[in-house]
Amino acid sequence: MKKINANHMPLYREAGFNLQNSKRTKEAFAAELDHAHEPEDYIYSRYRNPTTVAVEKQIMALEDCKWALLVETGMAAIDVAVSVFQKGKDTRPSLYFHEIYGGTNSFIDTVLIKRRNLDVHRFYATDGRYDFVELERMLAEIKPEFLYFEAVSNPMLIVADVKRIMALAKQYEAKIIVDNTFGTPLLWKPLMDGADLVIHSATKYLSGHGNITAGVICGNDEELMKEAIEYRKWAGHFLSPDDAYRLGTQLKSFELRFQKHCDNAMALATYLEKHPQIEEVLYPGLESHPTRKEAVALFGDKGFGGMLTFDIKGDSDTDKREKCNRFIAALEDTIPLVPTLGEVDTILLPVEPVWGAKYPLPGVIRLSVGIESIEKLKALIGDALGKM
Ligand SMILES: *Cc1c(COP(=O)(O)O)cnc(C)c1O
């Protein structure tokens, strides 16, 4: 085929690749046992695909790391990250922060414990704070293979003192896995600070338009990469080249988008905090936020993320619930109720119907702040608050 004078990377949709003859086939399959990130010859797309590898390189540049592996969802990325440490009967215990994505907690319960019968432990926050004496006690007692946490919790946006957590984990020889979906590499690069693996739901800010589900596992250690490639291949986790291609395009505007998410969220948080109908605003950039100190220490002046949570004023739970419903109804055509985050358009989620027993908070709404004009956002939200 004629070489095309195109400027953008091609999209390779092949399931299997042309290996031409027996010699090359034998060599390709022998080389495959090395689990290289970028093989000499591609064999089959579930093993590796050139379009997917090209986008992995874009993410490696963002996270400043030696390898990245794309998979079909954030959950698949979590499965790969934790499974590389599983060794049958020799699997050691693991320790997870409880203030993490709800889906991850469900994965722990329904897959790791119920189906794989693993020895999993949870570290709970007390009153929105992490008790480091308790964390150290657990690390010493459990001696986990790894510690798993998120720098920014959801929906309360507790920012962890990550340097202290990581120093403790290292002291007790636990590996470190970080879900960096909320922070993104723009606010923090955990691998540079000594994390062993980082995962992202690329469904969120990395793709940023609510039109792709994807996940990625990032690291520097070559052995972990080989284990991860092996697990990804045989457990059948894989991002299709079409989705990888679109992710690659959308990644090009990631830094621009995320900066605007942060700026808008900060401006909106400041506006809402002064609003007479608002009881409380939780945003790590606000002076009033319980973990503002940790946020400044970790993010410096880079921003505080695109998520903000606020509590609508009310006389009783019933009153709050009604006001919350009226607020959501007033925004029906402009700021929809969508259970995801990190899109260019602002979306909202009421906390009580989603988190229920964990956060039974009738007036609390989580906003995933988009990149619209801030004046437009303030006007929309101000109007909706007026209509309550
Ligand atoms: C959404 C999310 C996930 C799961 O990602 P999916 O792409 O939905 O599978 C994991 N962690 C965090 C923090 C998330 O927000």
UniProtKB/TrEMBL annotation:
Gene Ontology MF terms: transferase activity
Highest taxon of the lineage: Bacteria
Residues of the signal peptide: none
Required cofactor(s): pyridoxal 5'-phosphate
Family membership noted in the UniProt record: Belongs to the trans-sulfuration enzymes family.
Source organism: Paralabilibaculum antarcticum
Annotated keywords: Pyridoxal phosphate, Transferase
Identification of the protein by name: PLP-dependent transferase
